[in-house]
Design a protein that fits this description.
The chain is an alpha/beta fold. It has 8 helices and 6 strands, in the order E-H-H-E-H-H-E-H-E-H-H-E-E-H. The chain has a 6-stranded parallel sheet, with helices on both faces. Helix 1 crosses helix 2. The chain binds 3-methylbut-3-enyl trihydrogen diphosphate (IPE) (2 copies) and magnesium ion.
Length: about 230
């Protein structure tokens, strides 16, 4: 059984899960946090090298203020509370997204956890926070344009060079993208990076997602034939 080098997950359905229980949406996000811990630990155990989790999109800032506030508090708490689990499991932690929208307190906690786990080697856990695919492409284009201007000449640009300007520079493209809650769309996620990623959807809501669901996704992945446009 081949284990994908990079698994990415659009963790969706927390709100619907909470509604099913007759609770407020934040209750679902809190339950989702438990799933994050279980899935992260399992991925590290089975040999996944990179696990990226879509936790909050640039568009999610448009949600009601109390939900956004609750989510950011949850993120902050996790940065502090999950440190031991990450150290114990030898997991390196990173956050990728538009830092301009994050509070200084949260940024400080992120920097701290990134620094504390920088030497860990088993798996890299990437939290995609305040991230969107179009934002990533734009910031890459802007930075490349700035470098061109600074150089005073047209700089060569190929796919590898462009990828090095993306926020995900240095991280291999996802092999497998999982989306929970039955939605079958990309929702402005890693648009460039998912060019040849295998997609797998499940109706299971994120707080209900378990190791067996992850295993099912990996089983499916193993049945796929990746052709990259070539003829087999
Ligand atoms: C995913 O769950 C978590 C975030 C987007 C922050 P949702 O909050 O989107 O849950 P649904 O889709 O409304 O059920
Ligand atoms: C995508 O879920 C973003 C995250 C899971 C963080 P959304 O719930 O925001 O996506 P849409 O609005 O259903 O496309
Ligand atoms: Mg959703």
């Amino acid at each position: 059984m081949a284990i994908p080098q990079h698994i990415s997950i659009i963790m969706d359905g927390n709100g619907r899960w909470a509604r099913q229980q007759g609770k407020i949406r934040l209750f679902g996000h809190k339950a989702g946090k438990e799933t994050v811990r279980e899935v992260t630990t399992e991925c590290a155990k089975i040999g996944v090298r990179y696990l990226s989790l879509f936790a909050f999109s640039e568009e999610n800032w448009n949600r009601p203020a109390d939900e956004v506030k609750g989510l950011m508090e949850l993120m902050l708490k996790s940065m502090i509370g999950e440190r031991d689990t990450m150290m114990k499991n030898n997991i390196r932690f990173r956050v990728i997204g538009n830092y301009a929208h994050l509070s200084e307190t949260l940024l400080e906690a992120i920097r701290q956890l990134e620094a504390d786990t920088a030497g860990n080697t088993r798996m890299t856990l990437i939290l995609m926070l305040s991230y969107s695919g179009k934002w990533d492409l734009l910031q890459a284009a802007r930075r490349f344009a700035a470098d061109t201007l600074a150089a005073g000449r047209e700089l060569p640009l190929d796919e590898d060079t462009f990828a090095s300007y993306l926020a995900t520079a240095g991280i291999p493209d996802p092999d497998l993208l999982i989306r929970t809650s039955g939605e079958q769309r990309i929702s402005n996620y890693m648009l460039w990076q998912c060019a040849y990623t295998e997609f797998w959807y499940t109706p299971v809501l994120w707080p209900d997602f378990r190791t067996k669901d992850l295993q099912q996704a990996i089983d499916e992945f193993n049945k796929r034939q990746r052709r990259y446009g070539k003829v087999e």
